[in-house]
């Protein structure tokens, strides 16, 4: 009977040191991948919040721009109103009472609501709206009382702010 002896150094397998190094390398790689997934998951709501913020701003801007330039502006806008008054007039405390552009200057850090004053909680929970109106004709090369700038800021649930501006001319 013949016994074959393998020469030393031809053994197959891994040493303990090689196994430990392999485990460390795989652990670092897995931690990086899991961290990347965590970052992606944390930001997955951003596009939805951005879309909702734009839709909410459009809702408010449509309502504001449908109003006359000033309390004294007649239907059709002729003759033009004189002066540039800002702020809600006496007795205009509810949004349903706002009858000209500058009345919306009173909205600060408010919950979103429709024109009738009903909260839009279902789609816009934890969103906030702020609106400022300023006389701004000079920014456009016009007399100062010939244009108003409406600045609308939407704050989403993650405290990200979105700013929108539009001008309403006195006509």
Question: How are the elements arranged and paired?
Answer:
Blueprint: H1 16-42, H2 46-65, H3 121-124, E1 128-135, E2 147-155, E3 161-169
Antiparallel strand pairs: 1-2, 2-3
Structural account:
This protein is α+β, with helices and mostly antiparallel strands and 171 residues long. It has one domain. 30% of the residues lie in helices and 15% in strands. The chain contains three helices and three strands; from the N terminus they run αααβββ. It has a three-stranded antiparallel beta sheet with strand order 1-2-3, with helices on one face. Strand 2 and strand 3 form a beta hairpin. It is rod-shaped, with a radius of gyration of 32 Å. The mean pLDDT is 84.
Care to give the gist of this entry?
By secondary structure, the chain is an alpha+beta fold. It is built from three helices and three strands, in the order H-H-H-E-E-E.
End-to-end distance: 114 Å
Mean pLDDT metric: 84
Helix content: 25-40%
Number of strands: 3
Assign an overall shape: rod-shaped
Helix count? 3
Low-confidence stretches: none
Strand order of the largest sheet: 1-2-3
Record keyword descriptors for this entry:
171 residues, three-stranded antiparallel sheet
């Amino acid at each position: 009977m013949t016994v074959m002896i393998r020469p030393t150094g031809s053994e197959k397998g891994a040493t303990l040191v090689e196994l430990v190094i392999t485990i460390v390398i795989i652990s670092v790689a897995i931690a990086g991948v899991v961290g990347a997934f965590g970052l992606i998951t944390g930001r997955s709501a951003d596009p939805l919040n951005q879309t909702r913020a734009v839709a909410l701003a459009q809702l408010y801007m449509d309502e504001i721009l449908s109003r006359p330039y000033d309390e004294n502006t007649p239907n059709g806008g002729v003759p033009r109103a004189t002066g540039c008054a800002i702020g809600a007039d006496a007795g205009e405390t509810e949004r349903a009472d706002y009858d000209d552009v500058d009345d919306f200057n009173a909205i600060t850090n408010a919950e979103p609501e429709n024109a009738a004053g009903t909260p839009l909680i279902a789609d816009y929970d934890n969103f906030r709206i702020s609106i400022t109106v300023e006389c701004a004709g000079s920014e456009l090369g016009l007399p100062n009382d010939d244009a108003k700038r409406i600045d609308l800021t939407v704050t989403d649930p993650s405290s990200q702010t979105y700013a929108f501006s539009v001008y309403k001319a006195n006509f």
